[in-house]
Amino acid sequence: MIGRLRGTLVEKNSPEILIECAGVGYEVTMPMTSIYALPELEQQAIIYTHFVVREDAQLLYGFANKVERKLFRLLIKVNGVGPKLALAILSNMSADQFVSCVRHDDITAIVKIPGVGKKTAERLLIEMRDRLKDWQAQQIHLVSDDGVIPEQLSAELSIDSTFISDNKGDAINALLSLGYKQIQADKAVKSVYNRGMSSEDIIRDALKSML
Length: 211
Fold this sequence. Notes:
Structural class: alpha+beta
Radius of gyration: 17 Å
CATH class of the largest domain: Mainly Alpha
CATH architecture of the largest domain: Orthogonal Bundle
Largest sheet: 5 strands, antiparallel
Number of strands: 5
Shape: globular
Order of helices and strands: EEEHEEHHHHHHHHH
CATH superfamily of the largest domain: 5' to 3' exonuclease, C-terminal subdomain
């Protein structure tokens, strides 16, 4: 089991990144919330991972901290929720925001996530309610290597999408990779875009506009 990677961040092609560890490059799929927290390219990064082996593929999912990984692992235990949908959930809201939705039965916010219909949202609320009862206690035990509780870590927004050259295109491609339809991505980016905005700012504001 690959549980953590520490190495040089080589590429960021949302939602995938390439991190080089001891001469080996690992392709890792990450939620947007975790990608925002990554350092600049060619800088050292630590990623907490979840390794999935299927008949046709070996997949590595990465997270900025143990809290996000813990929630991901809880989400994929829900009937009908696979890694792709779990990543979409974590890309559209933080772990604490999702926990708040579950505790307050906020189905409205959850159904706005791409790929989550009403039935899936209802199932998430029901099945996750018991699993998140001791969420605060779980977070206290998920302490990072430097002794800082992950929920207290600051997330520096830093993303370099290289699908196409301009920032608007980067943002649209990132939204498409998260499951949004072309018309949704185009409309959201157009509604928030201002000249001079970085791709990460456009993505962040576009996601907010669709909540």
